[in-house]
Structure formats: structure tokens, C-alpha cells
Amino acid sequence: MRKIRDFHGGVHPPENKAQSLHGPIRPAGIPPQLIIPLSQSYGSGAVALVEPGQHVAKGEQIARAEGLSGVPEHAPSSGRVAAIEERSIAHPSGLPATCIVLDTDGRDEWIAHHGAEDFRQLEPAALLDLIRNAGISGMGGAGFPAAVKLSVNPANRIETLIINGTECEPYITADQALMRECSVEIIGGAEILAHLLGAKETLIGVEDNKPKGIAALRRAAQGSAIEIVSFPAKYPSGGEKQLIEMLTGKQVPSNGLPADIQVVCQNTSTTLAVYRAVHQGEPLLSRVTTVTGEAVTRPGNYEILNGTPIDWLLQQVGFRQEHCSRLIMGGPMMGFTVTNVAAPITKTSTCLLASTETELPSPPPAQPCIRCGFCSEACPVKLLPQQLYWFARGKEYEKLEDHHLFDCIECGACSYVCPSNIPLVQYYRAGKAQILELRDEHERAERSRVRFEARQERIEKIALARQEKRAQRKAAAEQRAREAGGDGSEQDLIQAAIARSRARRKEQTR
Amino acid sequence: MALQNITSPHAHGPLTTAKVMRRLLLATLPGVVALTWFFGPGTLVNIAWSCLLALGCEALVMTLRRRPVGFYLKDCSALVTATLLAIAMPPYSPWWLILVGVASSIVVAKHLYGGLGYNPFNPAMVGYVVLLISFPVEMTRWAAPLGGGATVTPGLLQALQACFNPATFDALTMATPLDLFKQHGDLTVTELWLQYPHFGRWSGVGWEWANLGFLAGGLWLLYLRIFTWHAPLAMLAALALMSALFYQGGNPGGAGSPWFHLLGGATMFGAFFIVTDPVTSAVSTTGRLIYGALIGVLIFVIRVWGNYPDAVAFAVLIMNFAAPFIDNYTQPTVYGHKRDGGSKP
Ligand code: SF4
Ligand code: SF4
User: Fold this and answer.
1) What pLDDT, on the 0 to 100 scale, is given for residue A229?
2) Contact between B279 and A370 using a beta-carbon 8 Å cutoff
3) Do A126 and A64 touch, CB atoms closer than 8 A?
4) Alpha helices of A340-423 — where are they, by DSSP H?
């Protein structure tokens, strides 16, 4: 048995997972229109390869990756490109993004595709290309491109590959459903990743509140070197850093990457997508998303095409709009609210939570901080949230950095327990943004200072050179004057100059 | 229904500030019952009158500060301050004494410093110390406990009389065990115990049970995780250690056994209801260990070598001063900062 280390803090919010676990994973269907944003993940996004009016087959590449950290996009179903334009997307910033709008034809016709014969014959670089070209980004929520995470510096030989199957947020059960139904593919995907990274050990970490998922994975993993590790449920055990600490006892250095301590972490859905890309040659076109909350009548896990509009999806699951007070993309701890239901589901959408006012009541007004310390007891990073709050309110940016604001993972555990209902995380986000802005400003000021100084220096140099030349000329004139027998005084100089110019004129007239 | 736009987290735990405060109030119950049993209903009248005054003060200040009165009264923090002050005061205190105490606590110590959460000093202890310095006679007139000098305790009517018409009330008062100890440095502990009826099994009659009562309430709060064990345990351990060091086998000049100190005076009340006040204590767990331990040491020092009968209030206020400094030097090691020593002192 592997030794599980506990991490500091954590909370136990009500799980609310049963609602969405009744039936099997169901396909949501093909909506009449798909909206595919060209920047779904971190990184540099994608550039459209198609034109409006063009017909595309399912799986056909419609956008290429921009730069190394971009992710290409593929048509999730067959149809005709209707437009390439700005559409509103589900993003915390609320800003619109360029999207490829696809009118589907309902035939769902695939482009020719085939998987690799034997992935073990493939070089890591070739495998990496396969994963990159399949458009796979991290599907746990943050959406970091999978290929970027997998291309580790050869200096960091990876010891441990961890497949993150914790799914610690309340309500979300997509990974759990996948473990139950697709355990063989998940194990297969893990094997591919382990081969690609040359990892010494491969662990799948699952919270013990998913007994069926664990059993299915264990069955599928029999005979392989992959170890399924379960541990008591506690939010946020699914945080990458927390999971790594629990399973390996090592901490990812602040500002560092897991690869710095020879660990790579990938999410369950991502692992499954890797399996399909390598064995079946299928790019990432759909994902399993939990659609749940009291404002939908048929909660469950749905296989949803990338780009499916939220309003269309909600119609399919019996949305009771009059009862919905909050629509959350992601879970109740870290998700963000969506106000425009025309926005699409993307590769990073783990959950769509349509909640009623009784389910998630509006936050009451915040009361003063009584410094009870519940927040620091709950913080998985061992920060002092009450102090951060204090400093954030006072705009004491240095103190904020001193107290490691930037190590905050915004898990929300502190706000969850705060008896005074203070929206702590909101203060931290604002604080981070302000500090980054200040740093930016400072950098800009620094750059213009350097530029100004360089210019100043140039001007001075020119002035100096001029002065020197003048001095030289003066010295030369004195020299000549002395040679002419004068005492080098001003008078002599003038006389000498006059003589010289006369001589010159004479020469010219001659 | 319009969709709300709110930042995460969207879920919230069950605890509210008002609930925390109500639990604190409830936790004083066993100690208050013991006090009432041994000293009569004086403490109850203290509490009732003090709470009324506190609500009045709070409402007045909130009106002056142009804040919604109801919203701030709802958090029950004024009731907690008032109750703690009332418990610390001698039973059968006159109405005006309590009035001065409550006003010092709520108006000066709490609101002049910015209100709940901003006050650097424990309001109840500020009130107590103001009274102790200004009215030392009234503040040291403790009623005799049942079975430790008195055979009956006053009734409720008498208690009300004591509070609102103090001139007509004449109770049997006597020195507290802590006072006696200090006045009789020439006696051995055994002699003291034999000569005075004040002493019970481990400590003062009545006092030991009140202390056990507050200990019980404190343990319940610990179980509810209203606070962590660090500060109270450190304080009790430091106090026990100091008294063990200076016990000198109960000979004259010694300072009372650890039991005497742990279950005497306001020790348990202080440990679980005053030292644990989160607003005015240190923040991190290491910080709270240091904070608690230093209070324990100070209590012993002031009790044994100082001029005041009990020392919890002074020790706490002194350490309230020091709390920000302790915080400065006891930041916990944040995740990911272990190896490179990234955490600053
Ligand atoms: S939990 Fe809330 S009230 Fe308590 S210390 Fe933290 S921020 Fe303050
Ligand atoms: S949001 Fe940040 S400060 Fe709050 S508990 Fe999570 S990591 Fe700690």
C-alpha cells in the first residue's frame, strides 16, 4: 500500500453527486449550429483554415495551432461553415472571441482516419505530434494544452505520472462516469502517456467516494504496472499540487512546475482523449460534461460536441428557466457564472450547473472579519487568508506578496468556511490583477527610463565630442598663433584668423 | 429569472458569525451555573444587566456611525463581550459599575478602534481593567461562597437589590483564595488550608467548580472547532509549569500548587473564553502557541509577585500588544516554499 500524505486544511462541502450519476453517459445530440472558439485554452490559440460557405467533414481540421502553445481545432460534426466572427463565449472575463460557426447537416460524416498500429514503436516526438494535432487541451478545467505539459525538458527525467481522477468539486461526476464506462481506454491512455514520458511509475489518484470507478479501473489495470490509489475525499484533493503532495510527499516549488520534481499530472478525460487520438486517430471533438442542478429536470452526464450552444443543450435536459438563478460553468467551488446562454460548451467544460436560489442562495452581505482563523485552518496552501484579506483591502501590495498571495490557488475553501461571508477569493483575484498591472506599469516605466537614459547619453556624447573638437581646434589655433610669433592671446588669435582668411581669399582669387 | 453574475465559490459552509457567537454564549453556561450555585444569582443579574447595556451601547454607536443597527446587532458580538465582562466582575456589582464597564468595553475598546474585528485589545478585558483601576474596592469585593464561608447564598430579589439599590444591600464578602495566598506568605500550604474555610479540594471553594465548568464549555467549543487548542493549551501548560517550578513543596514563600493555579481564579475562563478571542490574539498556530504560553507565564508572575489579585486581564492585554509582532515572525511555511527557504521571517 502506498502511503498517503494528508495536505493541510481542506473542506467537506456537500457532494451533490448522486443527482447526475443515475444513468449512463448519454449523447446530447447534434445541435443545428456549433460555435467553435479559436482560443479555448491557455496559450496562443488557433488560426482558421476554412472559409465561410465551405463544407467540412467530421474530424476535419478547421483551424491550425498558432505557435507552440496553441491547439488546433477540428469540425465536431459535418456541415457547412456559416461564418467566422466574434461570438460571446463562456469565459470568466466575459469577453467575446473569434469563433468558427458551423451549420451542421445532421449526417455526421467522418473524414477518413485511422489510429497508430503500435504506439510503442513511435518515438516520443511522433506521439507528441499526434497528441498536439488531435487538439487535446487539459480537460480538467484550466485547459492547458496537453502536448505542452507532456513535452518536458529532458533534464527532468519523469519519475511519476499521475492521472488525476479525484474530481473533488461537488456536483461534478463526468470523470467518475468515464471511469465506470471507459476504464479500459483510460488505462490504455495512461500507458501511452507513461511510454511517452518514460515514467518509472504511473498512479491514478481517485477519491474514495467513487467505489465503482475505482473497482472498474482496478479491473482494467490488472496485469499492468499502473497503480490505482484511493484516499479519503476532501476538497481540494484534485488540485494538482495537493494531489502530488498526497501521492508523492513532494511539493511543487512555488513558481515551478510539477516536472521540476519529476512529476507530470494529467486529467482523466484528457487521458481518454489521448487514447482515442492514438488508437483510433480521432481528434478531440466532444467531451463528457456533467449537466446538473435543480433547475434541470434530467441531470446526468452527457457526451457533448465541442461548440454546442448552452441554450440548445439546456433544452435537451429539461431546463426550468424560471427557477434558475445561477448558471455555473464548472463546479460550485471554482466555477464561474455564465450570463449569456448563447455561449458554447468547450473542451474545458467539466460541468454546467443550473442552480436554483434555494440550492445556492445569493450571498448575504459580508460582515466584519472576526479573525476566527477558520480560513487559515481550511487553506490547502497554508496561507493566512485573513491577513491577505486585510492587506488586500488596504492595498498593501508588498505585504500581499510577502504573504505569498501568488501561491493562492483560488480554491475557495477559505470563503466557503468564512462565517462572516466575506468573498475572500474575489479580493485575492483583484489583488493579483492589480499587482500584475503595477508590475507591468513598472516595467514599462523602467523601459522608457532606460530609453530616456540612452538618449540622454547619446546627446551628452555628441555634446562632449563637439566640445572636444572645439578644444582641439582652439589648441591648434593657439599653436599656429604661437608659431606665428604671437603670445597666444585673444588678440593674436583674431589677427591670425584674419591673416588666414586673407591668405585663403588670395588663393581663391588667384 | 435573471442569471446572477457572482464570482466563485458559489457554495458556502453552514457557519455564520452569529452562530459562532451564540455557541460561545452557550458554552459559558456550565461555568455560570457553578458560579451561581456557589455565589448566588449575582452573576446572572450581572449578565442580564450588562447585556441590556451592551445592546443599548451598540445601537447607539451604530446610529451615530450611520450604520444599519439591526445588521450589526445580529452578529451577537456585543452580547459576548457583555457576558464575558459580567462573568469576570464580582457578583452583586452595582448597576453603575457595570455601566462604566460596558461603556468602556463597547464604546471605547471596540468602537473607537473601528468596531468588530479592528479592536487590538480584548474589549471585555479593557472594561475589566478600567474598573479594577478606577474602583478597586468594588472590584475586589467578592461574595463568600456556599460552604466556604457562607451557609446560604442571596436570593434573586436580593441580587436585584444589590444591583439597582446597592446602598441597601449588605452581603457577606471575603477575600478570594488568591488574595489569601498572597497575604499569608509565612504559612505553609497545609496550614493555610486548615486555617481558612476558603479552600476546597484543589483550590478555592466554588472557584474550582466554576473553573471546571468553564473547562467543560471550552472543551465543547474545541470539539466544535470554534477555535484551535493551541493558545489555551499553551497558556495552561505554561501556568502549570511555572507553578510547579515555584511550588517549593508547599512551604512558606511558595506559590501554590499547579492544581491551585489551574483551577483557581479566572484561569479556565481566561484560557477558553479570553485567550481564544480571535480578534486580539496571534494568527498562525505557532503564533498562538507563543501567545498563549506567554500569557500563562505573565498570569503567574502577576498573580504571585504583582499587586493585583488576579492577572488574566493584565496578562491578556499585555499580550494583545505583542500579538502583531508575534504574527510578524510566525508566518507559516507556505506550500512550495520548503526547500528554497522562500518564506520570509
Ligand atoms: S474565516 Fe472570515 S471571519 Fe474568520 S478570519 Fe477568515 S476572513 Fe476573517
Ligand atoms: S482560495 Fe487561496 S487563500 Fe483561499 S483557501 Fe484557497 S489557496 Fe487558500
Assistant:
1) 93
2) yes
3) no
4) 374-378, 385-393, 397-402, 413-417
